[in-house]
Amino acid sequence: MKGWAPVYKTDLLYRAEIVKAVLQDNDIAAVVVDKRDSNYQIGHYEVHVAADDVLKAIKLIQDDISFE
Predict the structure, then answer these.
(1) In the CATH scheme, what is the homologous superfamily, with its name and number, of domain 4-64?
(2) Handedness of CA 39, 45, 49, 55 (dihedral sign)
(3) Closest CA to 45 of 20, 10, 6
(4) Which DSSP symbol is given to 37?
(5) What pLDDT, in 10s, does the model give residues 11-50?
(6) Is 20 exposed, middle or buried, given 0-12, 13-18 or 19+ CB atoms closer than 10 A?
(7) Which Pfam family is an annotated match for this chain, by its short name (predicted)?
(8) pLDDT surpassing 70 at residue 1
(9) What is the pLDDT of residue 27?
(10) Where are the domains of the chain?
C-alpha cells in the first residue's frame, strides 16, 4: 500500500474498526490491514491512513479514543 502509513496497531479487530470509524467520521480515509498469520492466528491489525494525514490521525487517536 504505497502512500499509506500505519497509525494504530492492536490485537483486537473491533478496536481497529472503532479507530477506523472515528478517523472516517473526521474526514480521514482509513483502512484496516490484517497482519495476522492465518495458519496460527498470531499477529495484529493495523489502521493505515494516507501519508498526508498521519499527524492529524495520530493526534485524533491520542485525544479522542480511549479503550480503558
Answers:
(1) Hypothetical protein rpa1041 (3.30.70.1530)
(2) negative
(3) 10
(4) B
(5) 999 999 999 999 999 999 999 999 998 888 889 999 999 9
(6) buried
(7) DUF2007
(8) no
(9) 97
(10) 4-64
Alpha helix positions (H), the chain: 13-25, 54-64
Query: Cβ(22)–Cβ(50) under 8 Å?
Result: no
Q: What is the pTM of this model?
A: 0.89
CA angle, 11 then 18 then 20, to 5°? 95
Compute the distance between CA of residue 10 and CA of residue 13 in angstroms, rounded to an integer.
Answer: 7
57 residue type, one letter: A
The answer to whether 34 and 61 are in contact (CB under 8 A) is no
Question: Cell 479487530 maps to which residue?
Answer: 13
Amino acid of residue 55: L
